Structures are given as structure tokens and as C-alpha cells.
């Protein structure tokens, strides 16, 4: 296919759109949500969106739509994390740097930047002052002067911390010599066209509301500037803007961030270990990650008084979903339900198969032996595949030079594979990170480490 071919925005079948609308409307009714808006992303585009309810939760009020602003809460943390990783990629910090190397004076200064990004610093979850989400915030010095600091030894375990992302926001601000949001707006929002993402409500915006648990009445929630705590959950956005961030999370980074760095951010660092439950949720570098029945997702949830939000993408396909609602509680798992319904009704058509293997690697295919264990080597596209990736020590390998390959998966990720040739130039054996793979089990001509018993097989 020509690289000059126009990009076609995926479309949603009308029946699928009606089904998604029904799911959203049913959730709005079930959860007694004043309003809710949602969107589905595929191939970097918002392919479906909808909104139910009114901005003030009253019949006859202003109808919500996909350009209505809501608070995104802790999804804000993903923007701060990307700003930190941009500093890393620019060579201005290392993830193993201590926080105090960049922001001196905090009680938790020995925690590393990576530990703060992954909620592994053991830092206290909340401030010691009044409930920061409902009261105006102060300065960084005021915040740090009131903190206790550590709850756990840094690196010991996952412990979610809003204070940790306040700290990372301060790091971003000091590194650039300006407010953290100025950095986010200039380096992230503007290049991505996210013009409706702000620190305070602007234009059409929903009222943050609490719904009484035992009556159909509403209570407005406060809205304010969170000050030094703002990087933990300050931002307002729309479904359209948040969908662009979901497209970013799905791989359409528009040169704002290296795809390799985004993939690095999705690597699990700390596992959310809930007693009695299987491990399905972890934190990478600023992003929540899920492993659900073998499918990997990344994203983040968000909550502030009067608002709940969600963003989730399949990391392999880039398909994703966003939701925003103006209630303090009551939202069920509608985001994954919407995405699952969309994927079931609008599955991706597999790309046509074409012969694209590397014929120069054909001499390496076939059966190899690591001791008595049998492995099969195949050429798939540009990769040499030894065994089955995802099973035992099966890996794909990428060519990095003549007779030199490097592992891409599992146990052998990053490990070197070298083709060793006999005098006639034919492959004699494979040297994989010191393991010797031979064409026959324990081939004595392949210089097997430790030697081969002279008596041979018996």
C-alpha cells in the first residue's frame, strides 16, 4: 500500500451506535448520574461519542455534549508523568535520580523519580491538612512543611500517593522555570490540539454534584485551585479532548513522545496486591496498567468531588474508551463495558497476509537443541523466532548485525544471540547469552560448554 494513501477515519455501524447509546443511557439511569459523556477511539480518531443528561442534573437544564468540560481528576497524573519522561529523554534527569537531586528539602528526598512515578516511594497518600480536594491549596513550601513523609520503605510496595505527583509537578516546574501547567499546555496540549483542557472550568462546563444516597436530590460540590496539589488532579477536559489523549495513549503520539518511551511507561513497576485477589492491576511510570485474560490495557481513572472519569486503551491495538461524569459516586464499570461492546460488534479486520520473510535467514530455520530440549526456529517477517514467544523461553530476535541478533521478548529480552559458523561457512550453533543451541542434542563438534561425555549417548 502506498504511504501516500489517504487515511480513512473508521466508522461505526448505526446498530453499534444505538447499542452503545443504550449502554450509556442505562448507566446514567442506574447510577443516577446528572450527566455522562463518553467516546470510543480507534486508529487515532474519535469514532463514536455520546452524552446523556444535563450539566446541572435537572430536567430542562443545559444538555451535556462532547464539548462539555468535566474534571478529569487523577488522569492529570498521566500528563505530569509524560512531562517528566520528556525531561528524561532530553537528558535532563535520570529515573534513578533522587527527588532531592532536583527539588531539595523534602522529607522524602531520597525516593527516586521512578518510585514516585510508579507509586512505589512509600509516600503518604494524602496531605495532613484539610481534605485537599475540597479546600483551596497552598504553596509547595506550605505543603512540604506539613507532611509526615514515608509510610513504607521506598521500593517495598505499591502505595498510591497524590502527594507524590504534587512533588513531580514541582519537579517539572523547577526544571522549566515556569508553572507545571504551562509546560503541559505548551509541550503536550497544544501540539495535540487539546484546546479544551484547562486548570479551571472554561466555556461550557458541568457543575460538580453529589447525589443523595437515599433521595433524588443534588448538592453542588466546591471547585477551587488546588495549589501545590494541582498536578495530582486539577485538570478539566471534554470527551473530545480526552479522546485525543486516549489516541496518544494508544500510540498516536504525534512526536510529542517517543513510542519506545510510551511503551516503557506501560511496563509494570508496582503491583496492586489486594489480598485474596489475582494480580490484574499494576502501575507503570504514571499509568495504570491491566492484564485481563492476557490482554494488556493502559490508562487511568480519575475522581474529584463532583466528578468521575476514566480512560483505557488496549496497548496492542490502540482501541480505547473515555468517560466523564459529574457526580461524586455511583459510576459503574461502563467504560470497559462500552469498549468490550464496541470490539465485539466492530472487530478489526485482519491485515492480509503477504510474503515478507527474510530469505537470508532461511539457513537458521528448523530444529535446534539446548541440551536435550528441542526448539524450532522460524522466520516471521524481519524477526527470527526461537520457540513460542510467551511460552517458556520462546522469543523473537531482531537482527543487529552480521550473524548478530538481540532478543525482544520474555527471558531473552535484550540478550544477544550470535550465529557461530563452521569452517565451511554453514551455521554450526547458536550462542544465546552463553547458552549453546546445536542442530543435534549435545553435538560434540559445537564446543558445548563443559564438554560432552566421550562415550556419547548410551
From TrEMBL:
Pfam annotation, one family: Beta-lactamase
- Which Gene3D superfamilies does UniProt cross-reference here? DD-peptidase/beta-lactamase superfamily
Q: Keywords for this entry? A: Hydrolase
Q: Which residues form the DUF7586 domain?
A: 358-439
Give start and end of each Beta-lactamase-related domain.
25-333
Any one GO molecular-function label of the UniProt entry: hydrolase activity
| UniProt xrefs under PANTHER family | D-ALANYL-D-ALANINE CARBOXYPEPTIDASE, D-ALANYL-D-ALANINE-CARBOXYPEPTIDASE/ENDOPEPTIDASE AMPH
Per its record, how is this protein called by name? Serine hydrolase
Amino acid at each position: 500500500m502506498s504511504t501516500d494513501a489517504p487515511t480513512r477515519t473508521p466508522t461505526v455501524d448505526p446498530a453499534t451506535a444505538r447499542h452503545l447509546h443504550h449502554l450509556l443511557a442505562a448507566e446514567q439511569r442506574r447510577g443516577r448520574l446528572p450527566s455522562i459523556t463518553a467516546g470510543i477511539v480507534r486508529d487515532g480518531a474519535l469514532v463514536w461519542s455520546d452524552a446523556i443528561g444535563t450539566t446541572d442534573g435537572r430536567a430542562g437544564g443545559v444538555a451535556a455534549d462532547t464539548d462539555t468540560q468535566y474534571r478529569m481528576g487523577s488522569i492529570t497524573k498521566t500528563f505530569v508523568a509524560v512531562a517528566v519522561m520528556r525531561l528524561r529523554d532530553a537528558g535532563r534527569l535520570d529515573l534513578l535520580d533522587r527527588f532531592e537531586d532536583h527539588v531539595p528539602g523534602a522529607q522524602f528526598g531520597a525516593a527516586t523519580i521512578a518510585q514516585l512515578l510508579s507509586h512505589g516511594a512509600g509516600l503518604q497518600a494524602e496531605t495532613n491538612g484539610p481534605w485537599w480536594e475540597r479546600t483551596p491549596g497552598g504553596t509547595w513550601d506550605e505543603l512540604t512543611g506539613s507532611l509526615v513523609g514515608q509510610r513504607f520503605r521506598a521500593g517495598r510496595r505499591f502505595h498510591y500517593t497524590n502527594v507524590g505527583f504534587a512533588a513531580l509537578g514541582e519537579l517539572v516546574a523547577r526544571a522549566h522555570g515556569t508553572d507545571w501547567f504551562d509546560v503541559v499546555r505548551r509541550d503536550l496540549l497544544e501540539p495535540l490540539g487539546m484546546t479544551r483542557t484547562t486548570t479551571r472550568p472554561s466555556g461550557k462546563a458541568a457543575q460538580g454534584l453529589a447525589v443523595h444516597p437515599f433521595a433524588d436530590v443534588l448538592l453542588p460540590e466546591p471547585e477551587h485551585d488546588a495549589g501545590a496539589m494541582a498536578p495530582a488532579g486539577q485538570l478539566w477536559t471534554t470527551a473530545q479532548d480526552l479522546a485525543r489523549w486516549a489516541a496518544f495513549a494508544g500510540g498516536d503520539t504525534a512526536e510529542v513522545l517517543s513510542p519506545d518511551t510510551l511503551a516503557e511507561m506501560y511496563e509494570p513497576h508496582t503491583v496492586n496486591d489486594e489480598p485474596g485477589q489475582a494480580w490484574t492491576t499494576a502501575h507503570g511510570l504514571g499509568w495504570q496498567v491491566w492484564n485481563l485474560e492476557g490482554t494488556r490495557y493502559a490508562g487511568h481513572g480519575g475522581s474529584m468531588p463532583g466528578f468521575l472519569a476514566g480512560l483505557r486503551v488496549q496497548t496492542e491495538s490502540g482501541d480505547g474508551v473515555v468517560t466523564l461524569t459529574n457526580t461524586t459516586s455511583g459510576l459503574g464499570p461502563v467504560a470497559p463495558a462500552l469498549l468490550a461492546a464496541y470490539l465485539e460488534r466492530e472487530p478489526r479486520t485482519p491485515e492480509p497476509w503477504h510474503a515478507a520473510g527474510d530469505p537470508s535467514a532461511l539457513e537458521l530455520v528448523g530444529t535446534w537443541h539446548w541440551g536435550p530440549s528441542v526448539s524450532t526456529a522460524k522466520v516471521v517477517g524481519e524477526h527470527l523466532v526461537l520457540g513460542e514467544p510467551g511460552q517458556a523461553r520462546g522469543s523473537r530476535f531482531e537482527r543487529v548485525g552480521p550473524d548478530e541478533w538481540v532478543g525482544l521478548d520474555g527471558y531473552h529480552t535484550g540478550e544477544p544471540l550470535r550465529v557461530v559458523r563452521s569452517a565451511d561457512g554453514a551455521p554450526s550453533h547458536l550462542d544465546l547469552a552463553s547458552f549453546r543451541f546445536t542442530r543435534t542434542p549435545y553435538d560434540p563438534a559445537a564446543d558445548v560448554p563443559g564438554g560432552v561425555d566421550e562415550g556419547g549417548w548410551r
